[in-house]
Amino acid sequence: MTVPVGLPPASAASPVSPASLASPVSAPVGLRAREVSAPVARCSTGRTADGSDHGSGRARTTPAGTPDGTVVGTVVGTRVGTVVGVFAHSVSIRCQDPHGVPLIVSLSDVPVDSVAQARIPADRLADLRLEGIGTPVALETAGAAVVASRITAHGTPAVFSPPASWFDTADGRRFGVPRLERAAEAIWGDQDAEALEALCGLGIGLTPSGDDALIGLIATARTAGLGTRVIGRFTEILTSPRAAGLTTETSLCHLRLAVGGDFSATVLDLLDALIADHDSTTTGQPRILTAVARLAHTGHSSGADLMAGVAALTRRLAHQQRSSEPSESGRDQQ
Questions:
Q1: Measured between alpha carbons, how far is 252 from 238 in angstroms, rounded to an integer?
Q2: Rounded to an integer, what distance in angstroms lies between the CA atom of residue 100 and that of residue 214?
Q3: Would you say 144 and 283 are in contact if contact means Cβ atoms under 8 Å apart?
Q4: How many other C-beta atoms can be found within 10 angstroms of the C-beta atom of residue 126?
Q5: Which of 47, 103, 153, 325 has the fewest other C-beta atoms within 10 Å?
């Protein structure tokens, strides 16, 4: 079914069973997390096992030689939330960060492509799915491993060919592409935060296409060291009273995490691959193709829409680089 351009209808979130319409239970469902992402760890009370304070956003750097380079410590604490979505491989709960700002956390027994997530046992996930929407949840994070979510690689990402996205549809080309190009230009020029805001809520999905593209733009900008002022101004917009009317609650949570510097593992993998390939003479390296394929499987179109944002800014960077290079005739005259 084609969803009209703009905010998606409430039914676009996820089909739910009749059990999800039942009245909320009085006692929270207790869950113990085996692994959490850094944003969830920072929301938890207490300190990591190594003594660093996640509440202030500080976490121990991963020691060299760890197998996957992602575990940054363990955390203690409990987050209390409410089930707001039941999906094929995860359940989403709404809780709050230490400042009272809503945070949507994906609970799953396998890794999912969400920057705010917690791994829980499969049998506990199955039990939670039967409880339905509105169920209060107490997520115990004591002893859980923490997975990093901050961009560590810095440099100019290579241009790549993203998969087809909403921006390649008739509506996307008409309504989305002009706004996407303007937003990429705004980041390059480090001004015009309204150009970023114009993408909010645009397109299809629980996280609309424009928001996914914004996350790609912001991730690329942080990697390339661009748009500090304009992203700062956009952050103010996202935390202002009018933010609630810009897009869906889930998407707004993801955008706030992005401007704060947090991204999912698949986004980080893609940018790492693009940076490594920037100075290479070989195009279409297997690492990039693998990263693109993994991210493309995120959501119905979220991964592809996000990569449309990454590609828009990498093209802008490449164009600027070519424009600044002296011509062959100019070199001959020097």
A1: 7
A2: 24
A3: no
A4: 11
A5: 325
Alpha carbon distance 226, 200 (integer Å): 20
Helix (H, G, I), strand (E, B) or coil at 310: helix
Helix axes 177-189, 228-238, angle to 10 degrees: 120
- The most distant pair of C-alpha atoms in the chain lies apart, rounded to whole Å, by 80
**Dist CA 175 CA 159 (whole Å):** 23
Which residue, among 167, 240, 239, has the nearest Cα to 202 in the 3D structure? 167
* C-alpha–C-alpha distance, residues 134 and 187, integer Å: 39
pLDDT tens digits, the chain, 334 residues: what are they?
333 333 333 333 334 443 444 444 468 999 999 999 999 998 875 433 333 333 333 333 233 223 333 334 555 688 889 999 998 889 999 998 878 889 999 999 998 889 999 999 999 999 999 998 999 999 999 889 999 899 887 899 999 999 999 999 999 999 999 999 999 999 999 999 999 999 999 999 989 999 999 999 999 999 999 999 999 999 999 999 999 999 999 999 999 999 999 999 999 999 999 998 775 545 558 899 999 999 999 888 999 999 999 999 999 999 877 776 544 444 344 3
Q: Identity (one letter) of the amino acid at 52?
A: S
pTM score > 0.70 for this model?
Answer: yes
**C-alpha 36, offset from chain centre:** 15
- Helix 228-238 to helix 209-224 angle (10° resolution) is 140
Q: Residue 94: exposed, middle, or buried by beta-carbon count in 10 A (0-12, 13-18, 19+)?
A: middle
- Among the listed residues 313, 287, 243, 293, the one whose alpha carbon sits nearest the alpha carbon of residue 113: 293
* CA quadruple 12, 306, 90, 45: dihedral sign: negative
Tokens of 118: 């917690």
